[in-house]
Amino acid sequence: xxxxxxxxxxxxxDYFGDKLPTDAKLFLxxxxxxxxxxxxxxxxxxxxxTELQLKPLYAFMDWVVILPINEAVxxxxxxxxxxxxxxxxxxxxxxxxxxxNLVLITRNIKDFEIIDALSLVNPFEL
Length: 126
Prior knowledge:
The chain is mainly alpha-helical. It has one domain (5-125): 5'-nuclease (Rossmann fold, 3-Layer(aba) Sandwich). The chain is 52% helix and 11% strand. Strands 1-4-5 form a three-stranded parallel β-sheet. α5 packs across α6. The radius of gyration is 14 Å and the shape is globular. The chain starts with a strand and ends in a 5-residue tail after the last strand.
């Protein structure tokens, strides 16, 4: 199975919080899990998380594909921030998806729909 989708932070949190619909869980379970380095930072940097909540998230990070913030992602992030009104974290995640030709899976479609070339999937609408 190849890399086809990039999973946004909110989807990881919803997955581990058991908030996703069954169809979304099945969809995600059939993908190679790929995230941005920013998603790793956001998920594991959850300041209110308990050790019990973080333990499965750390285990997940041990086997998920984590795409780095390389020069191409940096350049694309700059371009997105110049063109659109978008936060830094979201810009890096969007740039990571675009640079790697991945569809972004996110609950926050409104945060990303302004980016013309970005393909999006809302797991709550599968």
